[in-house]
Amino acid sequence: MAGAEKQPFYDLAIIGGGLVGASLACALDPLAMKTVVVESVAYRAATQPSYDDRTLALSASSCAILRGLGLWSKIASSATPIREIQVRELDRPGRVLMSPSELGLDRFGHVVEARAFGAAMAEILPNLKNTDVVCPVSLVSLEPQEEACRLTVRDDDGERSFRARLVVGADGAESFVRKSLGIEAERHDYNQSAVICNVTPEQDHQGRAFELFTPSGPMAVMPHLNGRCGLIWCVPTREVAALMDLSEAEFMRRANLRFGQRLGRFLKMGKRSAYPLKLVRALEDVRPRAVVIGNASHAIHPVGAQGFNLGLRDAAVLAEVLADGLRDRSRNDGRFDPGSWDLLCRYSAWRKPDHDGTIAYSDGLARLYSNPSPLASAGRLAGLLAHAFVPSLRRQLAVKSMGYRGHIPRLARGESL
Ligand SMILES: Cc1cc2nc3c(=O)[nH]c(=O)nc-3n(C[C@H](O)[C@H](O)[C@H](O)COP(=O)(O)OP(=O)(O)OC[C@H]3O[C@@H](n4cnc5c(N)ncnc54)[C@H](O)[C@@H]3O)c2cc1C
Protein backbone atom coordinates (compact mmCIF):
# COMPACT_ATOMS: atom_id res chain seq x y z
CA MET A 1 0.00 0.00 0.00
CA ALA A 2 1.35 3.44 -0.90
CA GLY A 3 2.42 5.68 1.99
CA ALA A 4 0.05 8.53 2.95
CA GLU A 5 2.29 11.10 1.24
CA LYS A 6 1.91 9.31 -2.15
CA GLN A 7 -1.85 8.98 -1.99
CA PRO A 8 -3.95 11.43 -4.04
CA PHE A 9 -5.47 14.12 -1.84
CA TYR A 10 -8.91 15.59 -2.52
CA ASP A 11 -10.92 18.34 -0.88
CA LEU A 12 -14.03 16.23 -1.29
CA ALA A 13 -14.92 12.62 -2.07
CA ILE A 14 -18.52 11.96 -3.09
CA ILE A 15 -19.33 8.27 -2.68
CA GLY A 16 -22.21 7.33 -4.99
CA GLY A 17 -22.65 9.15 -8.28
CA GLY A 18 -26.40 8.46 -8.41
CA LEU A 19 -29.09 11.10 -8.76
CA VAL A 20 -28.06 13.02 -5.64
CA GLY A 21 -24.28 12.50 -5.61
CA ALA A 22 -23.89 13.43 -9.29
CA SER A 23 -26.06 16.54 -8.83
CA LEU A 24 -23.85 17.60 -5.92
CA ALA A 25 -20.74 17.12 -8.07
CA CYS A 26 -22.23 19.45 -10.72
CA ALA A 27 -23.05 22.05 -8.05
CA LEU A 28 -19.55 21.98 -6.55
CA ASP A 29 -17.47 21.90 -9.72
CA PRO A 30 -17.51 25.70 -10.28
CA LEU A 31 -16.18 26.20 -6.72
CA ALA A 32 -12.86 24.74 -7.90
CA MET A 33 -12.50 22.31 -5.01
CA LYS A 34 -10.63 19.18 -6.01
CA THR A 35 -13.36 16.52 -5.96
CA VAL A 36 -13.66 12.83 -6.75
CA VAL A 37 -16.90 10.94 -7.41
CA VAL A 38 -16.78 7.18 -6.76
CA GLU A 39 -19.61 5.24 -8.42
CA SER A 40 -19.85 1.46 -8.42
CA VAL A 41 -22.11 0.87 -11.45
CA ALA A 42 -21.47 2.21 -14.99
CA TYR A 43 -23.82 5.06 -15.98
CA ARG A 44 -25.43 3.42 -18.96
CA ALA A 45 -25.51 -0.12 -17.50
CA ALA A 46 -28.92 -1.82 -17.40
CA THR A 47 -28.24 -2.61 -13.73
CA GLN A 48 -27.58 1.03 -12.73
CA PRO A 49 -29.68 1.30 -9.53
CA SER A 50 -30.19 5.08 -9.55
CA TYR A 51 -30.80 5.75 -13.26
CA ASP A 52 -33.40 3.08 -14.00
CA ASP A 53 -36.89 3.06 -15.57
CA ARG A 54 -38.67 4.88 -12.75
CA THR A 55 -40.41 8.15 -13.58
CA LEU A 56 -39.56 10.94 -11.16
CA ALA A 57 -41.92 13.79 -10.36
CA LEU A 58 -39.67 16.80 -9.85
CA SER A 59 -41.03 19.67 -7.79
CA ALA A 60 -40.74 23.27 -8.95
CA SER A 61 -37.89 23.86 -6.49
CA SER A 62 -36.00 20.83 -7.86
CA CYS A 63 -36.42 22.13 -11.42
CA ALA A 64 -34.99 25.48 -10.27
CA ILE A 65 -32.00 23.72 -8.67
CA LEU A 66 -31.36 21.67 -11.81
CA ARG A 67 -31.53 24.85 -13.91
CA GLY A 68 -28.94 26.46 -11.62
CA LEU A 69 -26.66 23.44 -12.08
CA GLY A 70 -26.92 23.63 -15.86
CA LEU A 71 -28.55 20.18 -15.92
CA TRP A 72 -32.04 21.20 -16.92
CA SER A 73 -31.18 21.94 -20.56
CA LYS A 74 -29.92 18.34 -20.88
CA ILE A 75 -33.14 16.73 -19.66
CA ALA A 76 -35.79 19.33 -20.60
CA SER A 77 -36.67 17.61 -23.86
CA SER A 78 -37.68 14.48 -21.93
CA ALA A 79 -39.62 16.34 -19.20
CA THR A 80 -43.43 16.55 -19.02
CA PRO A 81 -45.08 19.43 -17.10
CA ILE A 82 -47.53 18.59 -14.28
CA ARG A 83 -50.56 20.86 -14.82
CA GLU A 84 -52.97 19.39 -12.29
CA ILE A 85 -52.92 16.90 -9.41
CA GLN A 86 -56.00 14.82 -8.52
CA VAL A 87 -56.10 12.97 -5.19
CA ARG A 88 -58.84 10.58 -4.10
CA GLU A 89 -59.46 7.53 -1.96
CA LEU A 90 -60.79 4.28 -3.40
CA ASP A 91 -64.57 3.89 -3.01
CA ARG A 92 -64.89 7.21 -1.21
CA PRO A 93 -66.75 10.35 -2.25
CA GLY A 94 -64.84 13.51 -3.05
CA ARG A 95 -61.45 14.25 -4.49
CA VAL A 96 -58.89 17.00 -4.10
CA LEU A 97 -58.10 18.87 -7.29
CA MET A 98 -54.92 20.88 -7.07
CA SER A 99 -54.24 23.41 -9.77
CA PRO A 100 -51.00 25.41 -10.08
CA SER A 101 -53.12 28.44 -11.04
CA GLU A 102 -54.12 28.70 -7.35
CA LEU A 103 -50.47 29.66 -6.79
CA GLY A 104 -50.23 31.84 -9.89
CA LEU A 105 -48.20 29.16 -11.74
CA ASP A 106 -48.85 27.13 -14.86
CA ARG A 107 -47.25 23.87 -13.60
CA PHE A 108 -46.30 22.18 -10.33
CA GLY A 109 -43.12 20.67 -11.70
CA HIS A 110 -42.13 18.06 -14.27
CA VAL A 111 -41.97 14.31 -14.71
CA VAL A 112 -38.65 12.92 -15.97
CA GLU A 113 -37.43 9.37 -16.40
CA ALA A 114 -34.46 8.55 -14.14
CA ARG A 115 -32.71 6.91 -17.10
CA ALA A 116 -32.75 10.24 -18.99
CA PHE A 117 -30.90 11.71 -16.02
CA GLY A 118 -28.31 8.95 -16.24
CA ALA A 119 -27.73 9.65 -19.94
CA ALA A 120 -27.28 13.38 -19.18
CA MET A 121 -24.90 12.61 -16.31
CA ALA A 122 -22.82 10.25 -18.46
CA GLU A 123 -22.32 13.21 -20.82
CA ILE A 124 -21.74 15.92 -18.21
CA LEU A 125 -19.59 14.29 -15.52
CA PRO A 126 -16.50 13.54 -17.68
CA ASN A 127 -16.40 17.22 -18.70
CA LEU A 128 -16.34 18.68 -15.18
CA LYS A 129 -13.12 20.63 -14.70
CA ASN A 130 -12.33 20.02 -11.05
CA THR A 131 -13.91 16.62 -10.57
CA ASP A 132 -12.48 13.15 -11.20
CA VAL A 133 -15.12 10.50 -11.78
CA VAL A 134 -14.06 6.93 -11.07
CA CYS A 135 -16.58 4.36 -12.27
CA PRO A 136 -17.24 1.45 -12.00
CA VAL A 137 -15.34 1.55 -8.70
CA SER A 138 -16.63 0.77 -5.18
CA LEU A 139 -15.64 2.18 -1.83
CA VAL A 140 -14.54 -0.71 0.40
CA SER A 141 -13.06 1.05 3.42
CA LEU A 142 -13.36 4.42 5.11
CA GLU A 143 -11.18 5.60 7.97
CA PRO A 144 -11.76 9.10 9.36
CA GLN A 145 -8.52 10.73 10.57
CA GLU A 146 -7.88 14.14 12.07
CA GLU A 147 -6.91 16.07 8.92
CA ALA A 148 -8.69 13.94 6.32
CA CYS A 149 -10.44 10.61 5.73
CA ARG A 150 -8.57 7.71 4.20
CA LEU A 151 -10.60 5.84 1.59
CA THR A 152 -9.89 2.57 -0.18
CA VAL A 153 -11.68 1.73 -3.41
CA ARG A 154 -11.77 -1.44 -5.49
CA ASP A 155 -12.22 -2.19 -9.18
CA ASP A 156 -11.19 -5.03 -11.49
CA ASP A 157 -7.53 -3.96 -11.21
CA GLY A 158 -7.48 -4.23 -7.41
CA GLU A 159 -7.49 -1.73 -4.55
CA ARG A 160 -6.08 1.76 -4.16
CA SER A 161 -6.31 4.45 -1.51
CA PHE A 162 -6.63 8.20 -1.38
CA ARG A 163 -7.52 10.86 1.15
CA ALA A 164 -10.19 13.54 1.27
CA ARG A 165 -10.91 16.35 3.72
CA LEU A 166 -14.65 15.72 3.47
CA VAL A 167 -16.45 12.50 2.54
CA VAL A 168 -20.04 12.80 1.29
CA GLY A 169 -21.98 9.53 1.49
CA ALA A 170 -24.53 9.65 -1.35
CA ASP A 171 -24.49 5.88 -1.70
CA GLY A 172 -28.15 5.04 -1.24
CA ALA A 173 -30.37 3.46 1.40
CA GLU A 174 -27.87 0.73 2.37
CA SER A 175 -25.06 3.28 2.53
CA PHE A 176 -21.61 1.80 3.11
CA VAL A 177 -20.43 5.23 4.28
CA ARG A 178 -23.19 5.47 6.91
CA LYS A 179 -22.43 1.99 8.21
CA SER A 180 -18.64 2.57 8.23
CA LEU A 181 -19.17 5.69 10.32
CA GLY A 182 -21.25 3.68 12.80
CA ILE A 183 -24.35 5.83 12.21
CA GLU A 184 -27.48 3.94 13.24
CA ALA A 185 -30.66 4.15 11.15
CA GLU A 186 -34.33 3.97 12.07
CA ARG A 187 -36.12 1.47 9.83
CA HIS A 188 -39.74 0.71 9.08
CA ASP A 189 -40.85 -1.95 6.62
CA TYR A 190 -44.13 -0.88 4.99
CA ASN A 191 -44.67 -4.48 3.82
CA GLN A 192 -45.47 -2.92 0.46
CA SER A 193 -43.68 -2.99 -2.89
CA ALA A 194 -44.04 -0.56 -5.77
CA VAL A 195 -44.59 -2.08 -9.20
CA ILE A 196 -43.75 0.49 -11.85
CA CYS A 197 -44.16 0.59 -15.62
CA ASN A 198 -45.17 2.93 -18.41
CA VAL A 199 -48.76 2.70 -19.62
CA THR A 200 -50.47 4.31 -22.61
CA PRO A 201 -54.05 5.34 -21.82
CA GLU A 202 -56.84 5.86 -24.34
CA GLN A 203 -57.13 9.59 -23.57
CA ASP A 204 -54.53 12.37 -23.53
CA HIS A 205 -53.34 12.92 -19.93
CA GLN A 206 -53.17 16.72 -20.52
CA GLY A 207 -50.49 16.99 -17.85
CA ARG A 208 -52.73 15.58 -15.11
CA ALA A 209 -51.17 13.52 -12.29
CA PHE A 210 -53.36 11.18 -10.23
CA GLU A 211 -52.85 9.78 -6.73
CA LEU A 212 -55.31 7.11 -5.61
CA PHE A 213 -55.19 5.85 -2.03
CA THR A 214 -56.32 2.29 -1.39
CA PRO A 215 -56.11 0.09 1.74
CA SER A 216 -53.46 -2.08 0.06
CA GLY A 217 -51.28 0.89 -0.95
CA PRO A 218 -51.35 4.02 -3.12
CA MET A 219 -51.42 4.04 -6.91
CA ALA A 220 -50.03 6.99 -8.87
CA VAL A 221 -50.37 7.76 -12.57
CA MET A 222 -48.03 10.49 -13.77
CA PRO A 223 -48.03 12.31 -17.11
CA HIS A 224 -45.16 11.31 -19.36
CA LEU A 225 -43.88 11.71 -22.91
CA ASN A 226 -45.80 10.87 -26.09
CA GLY A 227 -49.14 10.32 -24.36
CA ARG A 228 -47.64 7.73 -22.01
CA CYS A 229 -48.02 7.76 -18.21
CA GLY A 230 -45.79 6.43 -15.44
CA LEU A 231 -47.75 3.95 -13.29
CA ILE A 232 -46.61 3.34 -9.70
CA TRP A 233 -48.75 0.69 -8.07
CA CYS A 234 -47.99 -0.08 -4.42
CA VAL A 235 -49.21 -3.49 -3.26
CA PRO A 236 -48.62 -5.73 -0.23
CA THR A 237 -45.23 -7.41 -0.73
CA ARG A 238 -46.79 -10.89 -0.53
CA GLU A 239 -48.77 -10.07 -3.72
CA VAL A 240 -45.96 -8.59 -5.77
CA ALA A 241 -44.60 -11.79 -7.34
CA ALA A 242 -48.06 -12.70 -8.65
CA LEU A 243 -48.56 -9.19 -10.07
CA MET A 244 -45.18 -9.31 -11.80
CA ASP A 245 -46.00 -12.71 -13.32
CA LEU A 246 -49.37 -11.70 -14.81
CA SER A 247 -49.69 -11.49 -18.57
CA GLU A 248 -49.74 -7.90 -19.86
CA ALA A 249 -53.43 -8.17 -20.74
CA GLU A 250 -54.36 -9.36 -17.25
CA PHE A 251 -52.09 -6.79 -15.55
CA MET A 252 -53.74 -3.97 -17.53
CA ARG A 253 -57.21 -5.32 -16.83
CA ARG A 254 -56.52 -5.21 -13.08
CA ALA A 255 -54.82 -1.81 -13.27
CA ASN A 256 -57.82 -0.43 -15.21
CA LEU A 257 -60.19 -1.85 -12.63
CA ARG A 258 -58.28 -0.25 -9.78
CA PHE A 259 -57.57 3.12 -11.41
CA GLY A 260 -61.14 3.48 -12.62
CA GLN A 261 -60.45 4.56 -16.19
CA ARG A 262 -59.94 8.24 -15.37
CA LEU A 263 -58.05 8.42 -18.68
CA GLY A 264 -60.03 5.74 -20.46
CA ARG A 265 -58.47 2.27 -20.49
CA PHE A 266 -54.74 1.56 -20.44
CA LEU A 267 -54.06 0.15 -23.91
CA LYS A 268 -50.34 -0.64 -23.81
CA MET A 269 -47.72 -1.12 -21.14
CA GLY A 270 -43.93 -1.32 -20.85
CA LYS A 271 -41.56 -3.43 -18.77
CA ARG A 272 -42.45 -3.90 -15.09
CA SER A 273 -39.99 -3.43 -12.18
CA ALA A 274 -40.65 -3.89 -8.46
CA TYR A 275 -39.16 -2.10 -5.44
CA PRO A 276 -39.67 -3.14 -1.80
CA LEU A 277 -40.65 -0.07 0.23
CA LYS A 278 -38.94 0.80 3.50
CA LEU A 279 -38.27 3.90 5.53
CA VAL A 280 -34.57 4.12 6.40
CA ARG A 281 -33.60 7.26 8.29
CA ALA A 282 -30.09 7.89 9.62
CA LEU A 283 -30.18 9.00 13.26
CA GLU A 284 -27.31 11.44 12.55
CA ASP A 285 -26.23 12.94 9.26
CA VAL A 286 -22.81 14.36 10.11
CA ARG A 287 -19.69 12.96 11.75
CA PRO A 288 -16.19 14.50 11.81
CA ARG A 289 -15.17 14.93 8.15
CA ALA A 290 -18.23 13.12 6.82
CA VAL A 291 -21.85 13.76 5.89
CA VAL A 292 -24.58 11.50 4.49
CA ILE A 293 -27.12 12.93 2.03
CA GLY A 294 -29.97 11.72 -0.20
CA ASN A 295 -31.16 8.16 0.35
CA ALA A 296 -28.08 7.45 2.50
CA SER A 297 -29.64 9.81 5.02
CA HIS A 298 -33.36 9.20 4.33
CA ALA A 299 -34.96 6.64 2.02
CA ILE A 300 -38.72 7.23 2.11
CA HIS A 301 -41.98 5.83 0.72
CA PRO A 302 -42.61 7.10 -2.84
CA VAL A 303 -46.12 8.36 -1.98
CA GLY A 304 -46.12 12.10 -2.60
CA ALA A 305 -42.99 11.73 -4.80
CA GLN A 306 -40.61 13.43 -2.37
CA GLY A 307 -37.45 11.26 -2.16
CA PHE A 308 -35.17 12.68 -4.84
CA ASN A 309 -36.60 16.16 -4.34
CA LEU A 310 -35.54 16.00 -0.68
CA GLY A 311 -32.10 14.62 -1.58
CA LEU A 312 -31.56 17.30 -4.21
CA ARG A 313 -32.26 19.95 -1.57
CA ASP A 314 -29.58 18.27 0.60
CA ALA A 315 -27.15 18.73 -2.29
CA ALA A 316 -28.21 22.37 -2.84
CA VAL A 317 -27.80 23.23 0.85
CA LEU A 318 -24.46 21.44 1.23
CA ALA A 319 -23.16 23.25 -1.87
CA GLU A 320 -24.33 26.59 -0.46
CA VAL A 321 -22.75 25.98 2.96
CA LEU A 322 -19.44 25.07 1.28
CA ALA A 323 -19.62 28.04 -1.12
CA ASP A 324 -20.21 30.41 1.82
CA GLY A 325 -17.35 28.80 3.76
CA LEU A 326 -15.06 29.31 0.78
CA ARG A 327 -16.08 32.97 0.52
CA ASP A 328 -15.44 33.49 4.24
CA ARG A 329 -11.93 32.06 4.12
CA SER A 330 -10.46 35.58 4.13
CA ARG A 331 -11.57 35.73 7.78
CA ASN A 332 -9.61 32.53 8.40
CA ASP A 333 -6.11 33.44 7.09
CA GLY A 334 -7.14 32.37 3.60
CA ARG A 335 -7.53 28.75 4.74
CA PHE A 336 -10.63 26.74 3.96
CA ASP A 337 -11.39 23.28 5.27
CA PRO A 338 -14.51 21.74 3.62
CA GLY A 339 -14.62 19.11 6.39
CA SER A 340 -14.71 21.65 9.21
CA TRP A 341 -17.09 20.65 11.97
CA ASP A 342 -18.70 24.11 12.06
CA LEU A 343 -19.73 23.85 8.41
CA LEU A 344 -21.09 20.33 8.87
CA CYS A 345 -23.14 21.37 11.91
CA ARG A 346 -24.51 24.31 9.94
CA TYR A 347 -25.58 21.95 7.16
CA SER A 348 -27.20 19.51 9.59
CA ALA A 349 -29.15 22.16 11.50
CA TRP A 350 -30.39 23.71 8.24
CA ARG A 351 -31.62 20.39 6.86
CA LYS A 352 -33.35 19.08 9.98
CA PRO A 353 -36.74 20.88 9.66
CA ASP A 354 -37.07 19.89 5.98
CA HIS A 355 -36.09 16.27 6.75
CA ASP A 356 -38.50 16.09 9.71
CA GLY A 357 -41.40 17.70 7.81
CA THR A 358 -41.00 15.79 4.55
CA ILE A 359 -40.45 12.41 6.22
CA ALA A 360 -43.43 12.96 8.55
CA TYR A 361 -45.56 13.84 5.50
CA SER A 362 -44.70 10.81 3.34
CA ASP A 363 -44.49 8.34 6.23
CA GLY A 364 -47.74 9.70 7.71
CA LEU A 365 -49.59 9.34 4.39
CA ALA A 366 -48.27 5.80 3.85
CA ARG A 367 -49.31 4.67 7.34
CA LEU A 368 -52.61 6.57 7.54
CA TYR A 369 -53.92 5.16 4.28
CA SER A 370 -53.05 1.57 5.16
CA ASN A 371 -54.62 1.80 8.63
CA PRO A 372 -57.95 -0.10 8.62
CA SER A 373 -59.28 1.42 11.91
CA PRO A 374 -62.59 3.38 11.70
CA LEU A 375 -60.92 6.36 13.40
CA ALA A 376 -58.18 6.55 10.74
CA SER A 377 -60.83 6.14 8.06
CA ALA A 378 -62.89 9.04 9.46
CA GLY A 379 -59.74 11.17 9.72
CA ARG A 380 -58.89 10.45 6.08
CA LEU A 381 -62.34 11.43 4.88
CA ALA A 382 -62.29 14.64 6.93
CA GLY A 383 -58.81 15.50 5.62
CA LEU A 384 -59.75 14.83 2.01
CA LEU A 385 -62.95 16.89 2.21
CA ALA A 386 -61.20 19.74 4.03
CA HIS A 387 -58.59 19.91 1.27
CA ALA A 388 -61.31 19.62 -1.40
CA PHE A 389 -63.24 22.62 -0.08
CA VAL A 390 -60.68 24.89 1.62
CA PRO A 391 -58.40 26.53 -0.95
CA SER A 392 -55.91 27.80 1.67
CA LEU A 393 -55.29 24.20 2.87
CA ARG A 394 -54.75 23.10 -0.71
CA ARG A 395 -52.33 25.94 -1.29
CA GLN A 396 -50.32 25.06 1.84
CA LEU A 397 -50.12 21.43 0.75
CA ALA A 398 -49.09 22.40 -2.78
CA VAL A 399 -46.37 24.81 -1.60
CA LYS A 400 -44.86 22.17 0.71
CA SER A 401 -44.97 19.41 -1.88
CA MET A 402 -43.27 21.75 -4.34
CA GLY A 403 -40.27 21.73 -2.00
CA TYR A 404 -40.69 25.17 -0.44
CA ARG A 405 -40.31 24.25 3.21
CA GLY A 406 -38.17 26.06 5.81
CA HIS A 407 -35.11 28.10 4.79
CA ILE A 408 -34.90 27.72 1.01
CA PRO A 409 -31.43 27.38 -0.56
CA ARG A 410 -30.34 29.96 -3.14
CA LEU A 411 -30.32 27.47 -6.02
CA ALA A 412 -33.98 26.56 -5.32
CA ARG A 413 -34.81 30.29 -5.42
CA GLY A 414 -33.31 30.53 -8.89
CA GLU A 415 -30.18 32.37 -7.64
CA SER A 416 -26.60 31.32 -8.20
CA LEU A 417 -24.47 29.75 -5.45
C1 LIG B 1 -40.82 3.37 -7.21
C2 LIG B 1 -40.16 4.66 -6.83
C3 LIG B 1 -40.62 5.85 -7.34
C4 LIG B 1 -40.02 7.06 -6.97
N1 LIG B 1 -40.53 8.22 -7.46
C5 LIG B 1 -39.99 9.39 -7.06
C6 LIG B 1 -40.51 10.63 -7.54
O1 LIG B 1 -41.46 10.66 -8.33
N2 LIG B 1 -39.94 11.78 -7.12
C7 LIG B 1 -38.89 11.79 -6.24
O2 LIG B 1 -38.41 12.86 -5.87
N3 LIG B 1 -38.36 10.62 -5.78
C8 LIG B 1 -38.88 9.44 -6.17
N4 LIG B 1 -38.34 8.27 -5.72
C9 LIG B 1 -37.16 8.32 -4.82
C10 LIG B 1 -35.84 8.44 -5.59
O3 LIG B 1 -35.72 7.42 -6.54
C11 LIG B 1 -34.67 8.38 -4.62
O4 LIG B 1 -34.88 9.33 -3.61
C12 LIG B 1 -33.34 8.66 -5.31
O5 LIG B 1 -33.03 7.60 -6.18
C13 LIG B 1 -32.22 8.80 -4.29
O6 LIG B 1 -31.02 9.07 -4.97
P1 LIG B 1 -29.61 8.84 -4.27
O7 LIG B 1 -28.61 9.31 -5.27
O8 LIG B 1 -29.60 9.41 -2.91
O9 LIG B 1 -29.51 7.26 -4.04
P2 LIG B 1 -29.48 6.09 -5.12
O10 LIG B 1 -30.39 6.41 -6.23
O11 LIG B 1 -29.72 4.83 -4.36
O12 LIG B 1 -27.99 6.10 -5.67
C14 LIG B 1 -26.91 5.64 -4.90
C15 LIG B 1 -25.71 5.42 -5.82
O13 LIG B 1 -24.60 5.03 -5.01
C16 LIG B 1 -23.90 3.98 -5.66
N5 LIG B 1 -23.19 3.21 -4.62
C17 LIG B 1 -23.73 2.45 -3.64
N6 LIG B 1 -22.76 1.92 -2.86
C18 LIG B 1 -21.58 2.36 -3.36
C19 LIG B 1 -20.21 2.16 -2.99
N7 LIG B 1 -19.85 1.40 -1.93
N8 LIG B 1 -19.24 2.75 -3.73
C20 LIG B 1 -19.56 3.53 -4.79
N9 LIG B 1 -20.85 3.76 -5.19
C21 LIG B 1 -21.84 3.18 -4.48
C22 LIG B 1 -24.99 3.20 -6.38
O14 LIG B 1 -24.49 2.45 -7.46
C23 LIG B 1 -25.93 4.31 -6.84
O15 LIG B 1 -25.61 4.80 -8.12
C24 LIG B 1 -38.92 7.06 -6.07
C25 LIG B 1 -38.44 5.85 -5.56
C26 LIG B 1 -39.05 4.66 -5.93
C27 LIG B 1 -38.53 3.36 -5.35
Task: Outline the structure in words.
By secondary structure, the protein is an alpha+beta fold. It has a domain at about 5-80 and about 110-185 and about 280-380: FAD/NAD(P)-binding domain. It has eleven helices and 20 strands. Strands 5, 6, 12, 13, 14, 15, 16, 17 and 20 form a nine-stranded mixed beta sheet that branches. Strands 1, 2, 8, 9, 10, 11, 18 and 19 form an eight-stranded mixed beta sheet that branches. Helix 1 (about 20-30) packs parallel to helix 8, helix 8 (about 305-325) packs antiparallel against helix 9 and helix 10 crosses helix 11 (about 390-400). The longest helix is centred in the last third of the chain and has 28 residues, at about 340-370. The radius of gyration is 22 Å and the shape is globular. The two termini are about 40 Å apart. The structure holds flavin-adenine dinucleotide. Flavin-adenine dinucleotide binds near residues 40, 54, 232, 305 and 306.
Notable characteristics:
globular, 20 strands, nine-stranded mixed beta sheet, alpha+beta, 11 helices, binds flavin-adenine dinucleotide, 417 residues, eight-stranded mixed beta sheet, FAD/NAD(P)-binding domain
